[in-house]
Amino acid sequence: MVTQAKKKGVGLHKRGLAAWKEQTGMIVEKPQEGEILKESDLSIMSNANKPQKFILMPKAFQQVTMLPGIPMNTCVSIVGHSNSGKSTLLNHAIAGAQKQGLIPVIIDTENSFSFQYAKAMGFEAEPIYANVEVEDGVDEETGEILKHVERKIIDWQGDFIYYNSNKLAERFGDIDYSTGKKVSKKRKEALIEDVAMAIHELLDAQENGEIEQGFLFCWDSVGSAQCFREYNSGHQANPMWAAAAISQSFGSLVNSRIPSSKNVAIKYDNTFLYINKVWLNNTISPSGPQMETKGGKSLKYATRLEILMGGQLTAGIKRLTAVSKGLNYGYATQTKIKILKNHLDAPHNVVYEGPLIATDTGFIGVDDLDSYKKSHISQILKNLNEQAEGNFEINENDITFEECEATEVN
Q: What is the pTM (predicted TM-score) of this model?
């Protein structure tokens, strides 16, 4: 009896890493020479990342940090004490994002965002005016409430999304975060969980094709809103509850949804930039107080770039003032910027620091200060003369420029 010879390998089970990848669908076939792929052809299993992109920042920022701007497709934090330039940095970022076709999503639980200040740095927003009835007080003789009508800005519109605490509560205030269900009575206060919900909602809309642009999510600030558990307990402040709420609410955002947008298979660029309130901890170091961020460590661990404005133990700024005849006008602030943490890929994994000037129109370099004073002397004179209230006149020759260290902290 003659048996037919079998080909080598027939009937044998393939083994090894390559075989396992093939069986599980983890192998991406190499395109043929000259083949052009569509973005929709890219595999969701791709390990390839987009080249690092940046939201471009002013020349003064670039010279000090040695970075082009705010890195996209990642989480970036801004820390520092009051009046150290954090809001100026954020305003430059939203203006840059808008110019580069991203949608700035401004989440303002501080309720202090100034559209006028942001517009001075190039942010585009149009005011909506309305005639508003304003009370003047009460007529003492008749008891009648006195009123008049003023034309006021009641809102702003443009290529951006803005949430303050009222808007967040109006949108998400009927959610009971302990059960995940909606309730009939709506909250009037914004919570940590509302901020995360707003970001999730917009990313869902992007994935569903309802919004066809990338986002820059800006939160000002971590530490300015309480969590649902604090609210539900009668506004009992508990840092551990707040930290747990941030970890739970933002975990998938900062560890998955935001950083995954750097993958070539994801069409849009999404970035999370947040200001983090700080406090001085006197208990952890025998050498003295240490600057700590509010809201726990979960966001800090997920952050790829951490930017410090000003000093760590004090504000670390200088107030620049124009002085004349007992009056003074603060025309700028000298601050400093330092990269505390940088986990970007080379060649952008640099850690630099240096001084820069925060003005009414944004950051300028220290070497540009003299030319800035000359070009803005008319505004300086106008402000000082308004303070004089017509009692005397101030001329350019009457002005001296001074600087004063500011050492206060939050």
A: 0.88
